[in-house]
Amino acid sequence: MGTHVIKMPDIGEGIAEVELSVWHVKVGDMVVEDQVLADVMTDKAMVDIPSPVHGKVIALGGQPGEVMAVGSVLISIEVEGAGNVKESAQPAPVKEVPVAAPKVEAVVESKPVAAPAPKAAVCQGPMVARAADERPLASPAVRKHALDLGIQLRLVRGTGPAGRVLHEDLDAYLAQGQSNASAPVAAAYAQRTDEQQIPVIGMRRKIAQRMQDATQRAAHFSYVEEIDVTAVEELRAHLNEKHGATRGKLTLLPFLVRAMVVALRDFPQMNARYDDEAQVITRLGAVHVGVATQSDVGLMVPVVRHAEARSLWDSAAEIARLANAARNGKASRDELSGSTITLTSLGALGGIVSTPVLNLPEVAIVGVNKIVERPMVIKGQIVIRKMMNLSSSFDHRVVDGMDAALFIQAIRGLLEQPATLFVD
């Protein structure tokens, strides 16, 4: 018997170290050639590490969340024969996959350790009994949905990775008639003293690093303006009624993208990237709009490329395609990079005002708040209008406050008179 050592591969693009995100094997497991052993994360993508040999795992080189240098020992496998350690320094080819949810999330009581396998469900249906202090895996959106429905997540069987509770699991739970009323009422008022320590690893670590980097390096300032979107909403409803069945339904986002594209003609300094190390601002003619999208692993920013050359329906279809890919963990590295300006929206949860963080090295981000009906005074008359705030942030190192205000006012004018969106 011999030992085959697999080292952390050189993934390219000058990357010197990567984060070990999750193991798919453990010591003692038998593996076969091309079986995925682990996922590692670069700045932009998750990468599968496959096995080049058949054998038995005898040692793991790190724990999930550990940052490992390229060339360091990743895993040791016992193989038939003398082994091939020298050649294993040239690791098996890696397969880049879209950034997706880690297969396992580590939740521990004292110190970070490898995450245990999910506990078996008591039953195979949508209901499962968990301990009162056990917090099931679920995204913030699923937790809010469960709260709105009055469902205790610990009673719902999760069918996602590592037992993660999905929206479909809530639907299945309700379909079987199980509700919060089935749990003892007293449990809702019981004292709790449990604590959880959740290692910040994988995508959450990358998000934390990028947000911290952005706020430390850029001189953020925000500008908020309210917009009367009554007219553009009427146009959207009309277009959906007339063409929705054949061209697809339009949301407000493609109108916002169009307004940004048109406004950028007069404010090219907003469609730029700032290299603060080289002290160079690059203004781009192409408008690649990053559309911030919430996924189960956190905020992702897929990119609508060449928005300046897209119609409303083309933009709408591309936004929907990219958002779906991001939420399902299927967005590629190219689809998640290269934006020149970002559009962020929390949809119905958009609130009144927000302070979005720049997506460096960009210098502008346009934030969309929710639409509300409010009484407004127009020509001395009180009328009900649909109003919406834009809460946008800029890098004050390269964008002057006056220019930022004029840019947002230009977007406001285009949306309040939507015919001007299509006047060249």
UniProtKB/TrEMBL annotation:
Top-level enzyme category: transferase
Recorded GO MF terms: acetyltransferase activity; lipoic acid binding
Keyword rRNA-binding: no
Keywords tagged on the record: Acyltransferase, Lipoyl, Transferase
InterPro entries given in the database record: 2-oxoacid_DH_actylTfrase, 2-oxoacid_DH_E2_comp, Biotin_lipoyl, CAT-like_dom_sf, E3-bd_dom_sf, PSBD, Single_hybrid_motif
Cofactor or coenzyme needed: (R)-lipoate
Alphabetical list of Pfam families matching this protein: 2-oxoacid_dh (PF00198), Biotin_lipoyl (PF00364), E3_binding (PF02817)
EC numbers for this chain: 2.3.1.-
Acyltransferase found in the keyword field: yes
Signal peptide as annotated in the record: none
PROSITE patterns registered for this protein in UniProt: BIOTINYL_LIPOYL, PSBD
Cellular component terms per the entry's GO annotation: cytoplasm
Top-level taxon in the UniProt lineage: Bacteria
Domain Peripheral subunit-binding (PSBD) residues, every copy: 137-174
Lipoyl-binding domain mapped to chain residues: 3-78
Subunit comment: Forms a 24-polypeptide structural core with octahedral symmetry.
Family the entry assigns: Belongs to the 2-oxoacid dehydrogenase family.
Protein name from the UniProt record: Dihydrolipoamide acetyltransferase component of pyruvate dehydrogenase complex
Biological source species: Pseudomonas fluorescens
